[in-house]
Known about the structure:
This protein has helices at about 10-20, 25-30, 45-50, 55-80, 80-90, 105-110, 125-130, 165-190, 195-210, 215-230, 235-245, 250-260, 260-275, 280-305, 325-335, 340-370, 375-380, 385-405, 410-430, 435-450, 450-465, 470-485, 490-500, 510-520, 525-555, 575-580, and strands spanning about 95, 135-140, 145-150, 155-160. By secondary structure, it is mainly alpha-helical. It has a two-stranded antiparallel ribbon. Strands 2-3 form a two-stranded antiparallel ribbon. α4 (about 55-80) packs across α13. The two termini are about 30 Å apart.
Amino acid sequence: NKIDCSCVNYSDLQDASIRAGRGKESERTSCNLGNFEKPKLKMSLLVLIRHTNPYVLWVLAMMLGAYLLNQLDRYTIGIVAKEVSREIHFGDSKCYKALGSNWTDDECTAALGNKSFSPNYNASSDLLFCNNLASAVINDNGTLEPMYPNDTLCEWNYSGEGKEYQILAGTYFILIYTFAGIPLGFLADTANRKVMLSIALFFWSAMTVLTGLSQSYWHLVVLRLGLGLGEAGCTPMAVSIITDYFPSELRGSALGVYNWGIYLGYSMSYALANGVKDSLGWRYVFYISGILGCVLAPVIFFTVKEPERNQNSANGERSPMPKEAVLDKVKMLARQFLRPAVLLLCIAGGIRNSGGYVWALNTELYFEARGQTAAQINQFMSWIPLVGGSLGAVFGGFISDRLVVKRGLSARIWVLIISQVVAAPFAAGALYFSAPWSYICLIPSNIIGEMWIGVVLAILVELVPSRLRTSSVAVYLFIVSNIGGNMNNVIPPLKEYFRVQLGLPEHTHSFLPYRNALLIMFPGMYILSSVLFLGEMFILRFDKERRDQEEAKNTETAPLLGGEDITDPEGGLENQSKIQGE
């Protein structure tokens, strides 16, 4: 005479009990709550809207806003690198055409390689030669013949490229970002996460505003370090908050929505920087982006509630949050990250992250090397990462959430492998094809290739104990960011290697060395990461089998009765025998 237990919410169950002539308490004994039919997922965002209360969606929106500004402030330097380098004076220099000159940059470079044919061929440096190069015509024999000696054709100027830029954009930022992330992750396991997130957001936003006031390269370095310190507090806090607000069935999708911030912020950096730098100057780009964060920080502080942090990702059980000593927690984390499954997941994620990080910091400079103007680049890059990356992040979480119910955790790994293999040819197409096809290739590259971020985080939080979740995310970011964030330093030596191999002049404006370097560090990293994710598939199975064997061994060696009453129906001899039999 039990009522139908296919209802999916408490009110339906209560109504059915009343209609069946039972009291309000009857449903607690007449139905097995664990056998409720879970709602079928149709679309990731639709599921979040339909099965999540409005306040939780507001929290997710606040986390998304913080991450959006995190990425905006991080990548803006790559969009204004040339303008900043020319005013602050750092990085590589080249011979460019002068304002009003009828020559091209390539013709100035060619002239630089034929100094003996110039009226100023005795100049002691490329800088003097380039700035004093007079108007000339190229004769049939390839020599330069001066026409108007007082009419300057070329000028020596900074390109925004080179080792100093790559270190500023990558290494200096990553250095403090990663090392600060771990202690902040430890603190977040016991401190108020929404308060820490608000403070971090305000701090890095202030660093962004101050970057607009920089007068020297070392000002940029110090403020970039400050930016990394503040931004280190974003993802560990936000991911932990999201994980405690959303159940495991929706966690991958929620993290996918959170990771929209990467693409929203990255696209906004193009729209803001290319829209402001030519009219108001590069300094106002940093002023505007920094002020936005200073406004959002108090909104998060006053509207977001600190959630309970005691839900176990593996079985849904709740237990008090232990306050381990720091040394004990370090030992526990070390054991977790020395597990082959967790360690390889971090290495594979770092390799994949390097591909995206290198491309993000070199996109504007590469397309400029291919002759694209800031307006032309902005026409595509202000929306392609936003649309493609956001769809990819959500689809990755949605697909993995659907598959993990049917095929287990390994289904998420398959999403990682297939997405990176399929996306790599499109990433290569963005480097090889001319506009607009180069930009068009970035659409499937982003949609398919960016599925990995939320999926990897979902795997990680399912592999570690709940009480170590926040600090585990911080350690993961430390490993991934140190691998990915320093790979852009490989670009200058790779460019120089390919320049020599192609027989091009020293200060060439040719994009070919740049393209070949990016081919290795962009789609090449997609392929390498997919190989490592494939290894993760096999190691994950071995890791699970080993843990099952250890649990079985512990069960066998434990006292059979364990001090329990053998008449206890929930934990006595019958239950113990069943466990041993399994």
